[in-house]
Structures are given as C-alpha cells and as structure tokens.
Specification:
By secondary structure, the chain is an alpha/beta fold. The chain has a single domain, classed as Alpha/Beta hydrolase fold, catalytic domain (Rossmann fold). A seven-stranded mixed sheet has the order 1-3-2-4-5-6-7, with helices on both faces. β6, α7 and β7 form a beta-alpha-beta unit. α4 crosses α5. The longest helix has 27 residues.
Length: about 270
C-alpha cells in the first residue's frame, strides 16, 4: 500500500518528512510559510497519520523506497527521524534528490566514543520500556523533551500533543520500530559521499539533538552549511516557521538547477 502524501502550494517541489510519533500535519506552520514559493509534498511515513495502514515496516530501506515511489524528483527536508530517512534516500538515489535539508536531525542520534554529541542510549531504552507499560505516557514524555528549552515551550507542547492523535492513535509496534531506528542507525559513512548540497538547521535549545552534533555532521559532508535558530528547541518550524522557511528558501534558491544560456540561445536561433 502506498504512503499518504498531501500536496500544497505552487512552485518547484519540496518533500517534507516528519519525526517520530507524528505525521505530516505537524508541518502546517512551515507549509503556510512556504506554499507561495514551493509545492510541498508532505508525507506520512509508514504507520503514522494517514499511512497507518500502509503495512510497511518503519525501516530505512522500506521508508526511503516508499517515499521515492510517492513523490517527484525534488529536494527533501527531514525533521528528526524523518532526517534519517531523507539522508538514507539521498545516499541511495542522489539523482532523485538534488538538495537535502536536515532539521534537528543527525546521522547518529546515540552517543559513542567517536560521537560524544549524541544522546545516551539509556534515554531511548527508557522510552522503549515505557511504550510497553503505557505508550501514551511514553510519547508524552518524548514530546515534553522535544518542546523543552524553546522560548515558546507551552505553545510548542500544545501543538505537538494535538498532532499525535490528530489522525488516530499511532501503532505501538511502529512507535517501537521508530525508537529502534533512532537508537540503532549510524549513517555517518554516507556523509562524505553525498552528491548534493545540504543544509543542517538546529535549535540552540534542542534537548534531543545537540546542535554540536549537527555541526559535526555538516563538517563531514561536502557542500554543507549549518544554521542555528537561537531560541528554538527540537521543532523550530513550529515556533520559528518564518526563520526556518527563509533559511530553506535561500538554500533551495542556491541549489535550483539553472538553465544553460547556450541551450536557450540555440533554441531561440532555431525558431523561425
């Protein structure tokens, strides 16, 4: 079964991929800020939102392939877990994805000896254990961590909580798969070989993804730039949508394929 994709706006396409336990509707403020300049393809990942019945596993290969089947060739923008999917797809199919934007996402979420900026694995273990006892409480703790630190924490917390159940209850199985994906993925090896420009947008007050991890990731990728939203937490597009939209538009404008003047001149001379 194919994934659900909402399409809105006008202009060149841009694919948006949401984070753990959410769905594409969480991007509403960003869609509003971008829709006059971009056609947004807002995806619900397997098991989430209106793709809850897709039957696909929440695994990198399955997600990347399903999204590639559902959207046109375009830049991709992934938030948090969606960033892992976007990065994986970009490394697999660079001809389909000519620019990559990562929002509060890194190639490796968990700390390691050579990756000190990651989160302790125990944090993910705690959420996973909580899913078995009371998935709603576990999701709510995760959301609270996402909103913590933002200068609009209460507003962000309300928006995240409202979004979780907006299209029905998420599957506990898929929630567990998502946590395993966040804990177990390490895509750092893909960064030096990226064949498209990338933008890494972090929130300075993010308590889930250290902005230093995003800077370190950007340093490993060719043609990469890092931008920090000073007063934002883990979801800067909710409370600082205009700043994120402006950063994306500036980045995408520099990446958009430009027409070859010689080709246009030849085409013009061929006309009667």
């Amino acid at each position: 079964m194919s994934l659900h994709v909402d399409v809105a706006g006008s202009g060149p396409p841009l694919v948006l991929l949401h984070g753990w336990a959410m769905h594409g509707g969480i991007f509403a403020p960003l869609v509003q800020a971008l829709r006059a300049r971009r056609t947004l393809h807002v995806v619900d990942l397997p098991g989430h939102g209106r793709s809850r019945a897709s039957g696909l596993p929440l695994a990198l290969d399955a997600c990347a392939d399903a999204v590639l089947d559902a959207v046109p060739d375009a830049p991709w923008c992934g938030w948090s877990l969606g960033g892992l999917v976007a990065l994986h797809a970009a490394s697999k199919q660079p001809a389909r994805i000519h620019a990559l934007a990562m929002v509060c996402a890194t190639p490796k979420f968990v700390v390691a000896g050579d990756w000190p900026q990651g989160m302790p694995a125990e944090v993910f273990h705690g959420f996973a254990d909580g899913l078995q006892a009371d998935w709603r409480a576990s999701v709510d703790r995760f959301i609270a961590l996402e909103a913590f630190g933002s200068d609009h924490m209460r507003e962000e917390l309300r928006m995240l909580r409202d979004a979780v159940l907006a299209h029905g209850e998420p599957s506990p199985r898929v929630l567990a798969e998502g946590l395993r994906l966040l804990e177990g993925s390490d895509l750092r090896a893909a960064l030096p070989a990226l064949r498209m420009p990338s933008l890494w947008i972090g929130g300075r007050r993010d308590r889930l993804v250290n902005p230093l991890a995003m800077q370190a990731a950007a340093a490993l990728a060719p043609d990469a730039r890092f931008l920090q939203v000073e007063h934002a937490g883990h979801a800067p597009f909710l409370t600082h949508a205009d700043a994120v939209a402006d950063a994306l538009l500036d980045f995408l404008a520099s990446c958009d394929p430009r027409p070859n003047p010689a080709t246009h001149a030849e085409a013009g001379s061929a006309q009667p």
